[in-house]
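Q: Joint fold for the lines below.
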Amino acid sequence: MGSLIEIKDNPAQEGFLWTRVDELVNWGRKNSLWPMPLGLSCCGIELMAMIGPKFDLARFGAEAARFSPRQADLLVVAGTLTWKMAEACRTIYDQMPDPKWVIAMGVCSSSGGMYDSYSVVQGVDSILPVDVYVPGCPPRPDAVIDAILKLQKKIERERPVELLLQGANTDEGIGTRRFDRAPNRGVPTTRSHEFLPPGQVSDR
Amino acid sequence: MTSTQERVQAALDGLQASISSARDGMPTITVPADKVREAVQRLKERAGFETNTLVTAVDHYPAEPRYELCWQFLSVSMNDRVRLHARIGGDQPAIASIIDLFPGAAYSERECFDMFGIVFTGHAGLKRLLMPEEYDHFPLRKDFPHHGIEPDRLYREWDRKRRERPSNTAFQQEQQEEGAR
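A: Joint structure:
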């Protein structure tokens, strides 16, 4: 973000800011992430530690954990997601207003982890678009902070003005449009072949 | 002071019960499946086992009779425990419920029904405890694959209905765009 703001002198000594709208919007978004913690198992404890004073997520502007999806723009899926819980998880994601991002925290939510089982979703990317995956069982709070920093770098690369001019929705609240824009759409996950006929690629 | 085994033997007199001592020292009773209720009633009333601590099953697939039901009882006053076994066949497995004697067994029986599909006759609220109620299979049976059978079916059905709801304008728009292309 070295080129974000350039202050130039002018003869009237008033000063002005010189930037691009994309960079200004991204700068605002990435430094004020409001996480919605979806603590499903032991990862939830590490998530609490991360927000607490010792690891202090407030240093990165993401400490305002909201327990209402309507007020959040970062969904942290922390822990083992079961198929029975998957409907609730997807509903929470749908209720979050655009723009929104997802962190899959821990191996369970990233890939199913050790629960190679009939009741566990083998990676939340089979129901949601995931932006950052965090390995670990559970990951240390520093690893999740690293994921937030990676997500901030990812947000820097977004093109909000372009999307605005294209007329992409920002207020549908249902999430399917953003889902289509997700970079990992159409990319088969390691396990997607188990649910699909041979040769077919997952569309979610 | 009679031993637990003698007390149980006296209580179950005439029920074709065979009593042995398991490796953990707990007296283990095996009774025919149709005598289970009678045996449980006698254990409660005559031998003083006033608490039911466990109802579960073991699947011996492909052996027949397939399921081995297992109950455990605790006597707080006598400080001892006893285990009761009965075998039932794999075709429409059913066994008498004991929830009128031990109301606390209701949840254990529901879990056993959920995992093995064993019907406890006389249990009024027998429905699934852990798995979704519309789920068709019984996960702890030995012929159930550990990856499950269509584990995502119910979610996908829900997801499709959600996307096709008239209020989901984003999805409708998306369909129209795809139709136009």
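Q: Anything notable?
A: The first helix of chain A runs from residue 21 to 30. Residues 167 and 198 of chain A are 36 Å apart (CA to CA).
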